[in-house]
Specification:
Helix content is 22%, strand content 35%. It is an alpha+beta fold. Strand 1 and strand 2 form a beta hairpin. The radius of gyration is 14 Å and the shape is elongated.
Length: 116
């Protein structure tokens, strides 16, 4: 659900083309943390190495880091972080906001898996 304020999940990117599929979403956990999850399949993944066709990753913004993430995206304390992530990603062509948040000094955990 992308248009409702206070939604539990937003889709940041959902692309299907000749290079494969690229999907990115963010969701709110019950503890207040935010998880950004991506999954790319197909030829487009070969930018990471020959023969690779699958890439999965996630970023986790813990509840204590949410204020810093809000500030890094230009938001205020009472803004919905999911909506700010959606706006930022839309303004940046579907780019994953995780790297931007890390570079802005937000404490954010990262996990990834690449396969063929």
């Amino acid at each position: 659900m992308n248009d409702a304020e206070g939604s539990a999940q937003v889709v940041l990117r959902d692309v299907h083309d000749e290079r494969g599929t690229r999907y990115l979403a963010a969701r709110r956990r019950e503890d207040g943390s935010i998880v950004i999850e991506g999954h790319d399949l197909g030829r487009g993944v070969e930018v990471l190495g020959p023969g690779l066709s699958e890439y999965e990753w996630s970023w986790v913004i813990g509840p204590d880091a949410v204020p810093a993430a809000l500030a890094a995206l230009g938001g205020q304390a009472d803004d919905d972080l999911l909506q700010l992530l959606l706006g930022w990603s839309t303004d940046h062509g579907g780019t994953d906001p995780g790297t931007h948040l890390r570079e802005a000094g937000v404490t954010i955990a990262f996990w990834s898996h690449v396969g063929g």
